[in-house]
Specification:
The protein is α+β, with helices and mostly antiparallel strands. It is built from three helices and 17 strands. Strands 1, 2, 5, 6, 14, 15, 16 and 17 form an eight-stranded antiparallel sheet that branches. Strands 9-8-7-13 form a four-stranded antiparallel sheet, with no helix packed on it. Helix 1 runs antiparallel to helix 2. It starts with 8 loop residues before the first helix and ends in a 10-residue tail after the last strand. About 30% of the residues are buried.
């Protein structure tokens, strides 16, 4: 289970509104009043500390709000459900406009830019508790029939091919305590790595994906709570597409993992 939530948007919106209001009042009223009360030959007195703070930081806060809401947002990976693609301690960047632009806090889409694609590593608001952000891979599109049987994924009756099976050897926080197989899964034109624990029993599943919904799975297939457990992701819950690791912290060695910085997420 990957919980990524850090509710910063509401605070940014509130800070932008407050500093912007103070800035506007100073331009339209307080600043003019200071000018009017200043005697000829004397310099205009500076605004008080609160007004000065708002005038200085409103543009900065506004830019941060626009960047995080409509362009790119950082998240941290706290669990291993997306191993080996994403490791515990990875800091990722999420493209916010690939799935359409949404209002901050309200999450209402106001501009259609693009649609999710099969194989995308997507961040979304967790359907059972939308206050939390999760990250999984989109494997089922609207209209698909998904079947997961004997640890094999089928889409519309066709087995999703895998190849290059090897024994997984993780390191640091990515190390697993049970024998695990790593293999390449091929979703259309996309190839990515998945992990499977051969001796761990998992229930079979068959699911039709209705319009406006997506079926998601973790790449660490036997250590991921995903659509097999809690259901589908509605389109309105989508946050964005993860595309890059900008920083990684080795939780075991307590130091940056420089080998992962700059990696593209596929």
């Amino acid at each position: 289970m990957n919980e990524l939530h850090f509710n910063f948007s509401a605070m940014l919106v509130l800070m932008t509104a407050i500093t912007g209001l103070v800035y506007l009042l100073d331009v339209l009223w307080w600043g003019r009043r200071r000018n009017a009360l200043t005697l000829p030959g004397f310099s205009v007195p500076k605004p008080n500390a609160v007004i000065e703070f708002c005038r200085s930081f409103f543009p900065v806060i506004l830019i941060v709000l626009l960047l995080r809401s409509f362009i790119v947002e950082p998240f941290r990976i706290p669990s291993g459900s997306m191993l080996p693609t994403l490791n515990v301690g990875d800091f990722i960047l999420v493209n916010k406009y690939d799935y359409g632009l949404r209002l901050p806090v309200l999450h209402t889409k106001f501009l259609v830019v693009g649609e999710p694609k099969r194989g995308d590593v997507a961040v979304f608001r967790y359907p059972p508790d939308p206050s939390k952000d999760y990250i999984k891979r989109i494997v089922g599109m609207p209209g698909d029939e998904i079947r997961y049987e004997d640890k094999v994924l089928y889409i519309n009756g066709t087995r999703v091919p895998t190849e290059d099976m090897t024994l997984y050897t993780g390191y640091g926080a990515g190390a697993l305590g049970v024998p695990t197989l790593e293999m390449t899964e091929i979703l259309g034109d996309l190839q990515h790595q998945i992990l499977v624990v051969p001796r761990r029993l998992e229930p079979d599943l068959r699911q039709r994906v209705p319009p406006g919904h997506y079926f998601v799975m973790g790449d660490n297939r036997d250590n991921s709570a995903d659509s097999r457990e809690w259901g589908l992701v509605p389109e309105e819950n989508l946050v964005g597409r993860a595309f890059m690791i900008w920083m990684s912290w080795d939780m075991v060695r307590a130091r940056p993992d420089l080998s992962r910085i700059g990696m593209t997420i596929r």
